[in-house]
Design brief:
There is one protein chain. The protein is built from six helices and seven strands; from the N terminus they run αααβαββαββαββ. It has a five-stranded mixed beta sheet with strand order 2-4-5-7-6. It has a two-stranded antiparallel sheet with strand order 1-3. Helices cover 61% and strands 11% of the residues. Bound molecules: adenosine-5'-diphosphate. Adenosine-5'-diphosphate binds next to helix 5 and helix 6.
């Protein structure tokens, strides 16, 4: 009370010191609070960028910041778990997708194969339908042609005899008329020869056509194919005069068949081979016989130019020929295939990577012969 001025100053100093103390405490508390909050903020930023490995440092404080850090770490763990679950799901999903894709590809390949065999079966069906109707047509034509052509053929012989005797009679006359008549008759003889050649050719075609459609008589004889090969080679000798023939014949069980029809197949194959090799520098005919998967195979190969890729599917078609007019009827292979099928076998053109053409006649052995059956009938080894 005596020194009011100094008392106020002391009080002011006291309050100033108190204020500074409080301010210091507030600054310290704020600094203590904001440092972990900044850490948390930085960590939250890292987590947002995908870094979920490092834990959120919680410290030991049990205050709000500590609880916040603890909650953030729990959130980090749960996020990490969910992300790894999603990743696992993703992987198994990808595996499933690739499994399904390969299953689909397999199913697709199966479907494509099935479609291919269906198309082939359809082609085969269309072909056999066509062949059946063509067979009927051919049978009719052959029947209709047979009588008139035989009549022409039978008339030719007496006509030629009459003409011969006329030529002889005229030749005995020395007059100019006689000579003129002889010349005319000789011209007529030449014309008759042309008619005879034409007639014989038509008769051959008619016979081929008849045998093409002949369905009578089951093949019943036991035929030794090796012997048939030898016999056919003998008959075809004139065609194979300048051809080197190599035989590789295995011991065969007999086949059930008609020897003349089977011989016709061999003859067709050999004639085709001889014609194909005409003009070739090396002429080699190979005939191989063997037992294969229970079937009896006869393979006739030549060293000719072979069958071009584009013709392979057509050579068995009736009337398909690449030979000049007058040389080929286009019936040989078609008839041969028909005969082979009638014997329960097949005739096929094989692939010949070394060149030339190679045909395989496949027949069932005698005890297994079942006409028009397909697939191996007996599977034991050669006898
Ligand atoms: P053709 O002999 O009357 O022509 P084929 O039916 O016997 O009738 O033969 C049909 C076609 O097949 C022949 O014109 C020919 O183009 C082909 N061919 C047959 N055999 C052979 C072969 N050994 N080499 C090459 N082509 C052949």
């Amino acid at each position: 009370a005596n020194l009011p001025g100094s008392g106020v100053s002391v009080l002011a100093v006291f309050f100033l010191v108190l204020f500074l103390l409080c301010a210091g405490i507030v600054v310290l508390i704020a600094a203590d609070l904001s440092a972990p909050l900044r850490d948390l903020e930085r960590r939250a930023g890292e987590m947002a960028r995908g870094d979920l490995q490092r834990p959120v440092v919680t410290g030991a404080e049990a205050d709000e910041v500590g609880r916040l850090a603890f909650a953030m770490d729990a959130m980090r763990r749960s996020l990490k778990e969910q992300i790894s679950t999603v990743e696992e799901l993703n992987v198994s999903l990808e595996e499933k997708v690739s499994e399904r894709t390969s299953a689909l590809a397999l199913a697709n390949a199966d479907l494509r194969e099935a479609l291919g065999s269906l198309t082939r079966a359809q082609d085969q069906l269309v072909r056999s339908e066509k062949l059946a109707s063509m067979g009927q047509l051919v049978a009719g034509v052959a029947h209709e042609l047979n009588n008139p052509i035989n009549a022409v053929g039978n008339t030719l012989e007496p006509l030629e005899r009459i003409l011969d005797s006329l030529v002889r009679q005229c030749a005995t006359r020395s007059s100019a008329d006689g000579e003129a008549a002889t010349a005319i008759l000789e011209d007529v003889q030449a014309m008759l020869r042309v008619i005879r050649n034409g007639t014989s050719r038509i008769q051959r075609i008619v016979t081929s056509l008849s045998s093409y459609v002949r369905t009578d008589g089951e093949p019943t004889e036991n035929v030794d194919l090796n012997r048939l090969v030898d016999e056919t080679l003998e008959i075809a000798g004139h065609m194979l005069a300048d051809v080197l023939v190599k035989k590789d014949l295995s011991r065969l069980p007999p086949v059930k068949g008609d020897p003349s029809q089977l011989g016709q197949i061999l003859m067709n194959l050999m004639a085709n081979a001889a014609q194909a090799m005409a003009g070739a520098p090396e002429r080699l005919l190979r005939v191989v016989s063997r037992v294969e998967e229970g079937w009896i195979d006869l393979i006739v190969s030549d060293s000719g130019p072979g069958v071009p890729e584009g013709q392979r599917s057509r050579i068995f078609d009736p009337f398909y020929t690449t030979k000049p007019v007058g040389q080929g009827t286009g019936l040989g292979l078609s008839i041969s295939q028909e005969i082979a099928a009638r014997h329960g076998g097949s005739l096929e053109l094989l692939d010949s990577p070394e060149g030339g053409a190679s045909f395989r006649l496949r027949l069932p052995r005698a005890e297994a012969a079942r006409p028009n059956s397909h697939g191996p009938a007996v599977t034991d080894a050669p006898r």
